[in-house]
Structure formats: structure tokens, C-alpha cells
Design brief:
Length: about 300
Amino acid sequence: MRRHIPVLMNEVVAALQPESPRNSRLIDGTVGGGGHSRALLGAGVDAVLAIDRDARAIETAGQALAAYGDSVNFHHGSYIDMQAAARALGWQTVDSILLDLGLSSYQLDDPARGFSFRFDAPLDMRFDRDEAGDTAGDLVNGLAADELAEIFFRYGEERHSRRIAREIVRQRPITTTRMLAEAVADAVPAQSKRRSRVHPATKVFQALRIAVNKELDAVERVIPIAIDLLRPGGRLAVITFHSLEDRLVKQAFKRLATSVVAPPGMASIEERRASIRLVNRKPISPDQAEESANPRSRSAKLRVVERLQAP
């Protein structure tokens, strides 16, 4: 199993490094292996609230950050719960928040998790296997063809979504990652497979993972929660790995960075003051050296915003 390499490490540290390390607080909402948190603690962050839905990530990060002792507090759960977790520590505001929305290498490389078609494994794909909820297998074998097609199109932008869904229904029951990958490959036209450099099941696996974990809903909900937790001048950094996530984050940031003033006589328009400023108007991507060293970083995009003074 390959070691997980945090993406855009230098760029994240540059964006979130505290001006003054005294009592500086970071929420790492997706701590994973703890790489970003370790780097930021080394750069002067005084205390970290490390959150992850994956129990194994909490265990791995605990080992990676053990040297920092009581400076790191762990919370097993969703980043949606960051406000309650912060309040439990007595934190009313924080200096920085990081959300790295990608899968870690140990999740992808663990056959039992069912995230990858490189292994033959049960169709699970849940980030938190202790949490009740549908697995990918439940969706694949329980939904109607039109419902599956909607998931593949909406969350995977899969152009052959209907063909794939019909073939899956025809071949059910489908219980393993290999069976699903083969069903998708059977459905995709040969010409499309020849033109593409990626496995035909890539978008379907992405779509199912997003649906199982309700990822886009969580991202949309957490942004205003995170902004509300930041002190004035505090920063939120979000790393995305596919266009759906990045588009959602971009639109949310743009909305919160824009003031709305009602014209005279238009009282029905709700006025709103901008609560953030965009630190980088265009997303930051890995340079060629990082992409060569860590091919999984290729699709990563980093967006950073800063909390403005409260009105």
C-alpha cells in the first residue's frame, strides 16, 4: 500500500501559516493521514482540531501527530459538525480551516473499502463504515435504471449514463467492484473506450461514492458554517479534485464575496454585505514537479478566502 502524499502542501502552508503563532487555532476538517496538520503545526499553528469521518484516518493521524500531544484534538465525524466540535473545546472562533476533499491513498488502496476497481472487493464506498447508511452495493442493486442513470449523469457527468444503468440492471445482482467495472465496460461503446485514456468505470465509481457519502451536499452546507467560525482575517482553504466540487466551491465563494444593495424602491431584494474576500481568484494547481512526484495530485485545485470584518 503506497504512502499517502498530501497535495499542494507548500501552497496550503503559505495560505494558512499564522501571522502570530500565539493561540492560533486550525480546524483540519479532513485530517486524513495528518500531513497538512503536521506541516501547519511546524509552521507555527498552536492548536489543531482534527476531524474525519473515517475512523482509520483518525487512528493514522493520531500516530502521525502524536509528537504534538495536547496541541491536537480529534473528532471522529463529519466536518459538518465542526462548529459543535469547536465549541466543545471552548473555541468561539478559529484562525484557519482546511478542507481537503480528496480520497487518501490508503482509502483507495484498501481493497475492503470498495473505492477502486483495481481490486475485487465488496461494493461499500462509505467513508464512515460505523455509520448506518446505504452502501454502493445497496444503490447498484436497489435503484431503478432511471435513478441510477441520474446518479451517473449528475455526479459523474457520464454521457453514457442510461446505457450503463440499463446494463447494470440487466446483470444484477452485482456484488463486487470487479463485477460493476465489467458491467460498465460492457455498456460503453467500443469507440468511446478507444478514445478515452481512463477506465470506462471511472466516472461511475466517482458518482456512486459521491451519492453514498452525500459529498456535494456536505460541501455546500459546510462553507457558511466554516466562514462563521473564522475570526476576521481568518482563512478557509478548500482543495477539490473534480469539476463538480470545484464549481460548487467557486460559486459559494463568489456569492459570499459579493455585496448586494437593493436599489431605491426595491425593498423586496435582500441586502447582504460580503463576508469574505477571495485570496486567489483563480484556483491554485500543482506544479509539474508535484504532478510528476504524485500523479494523484493532477486534478487538485486550491481556493482560499479570508473572512472580512463582521458588519
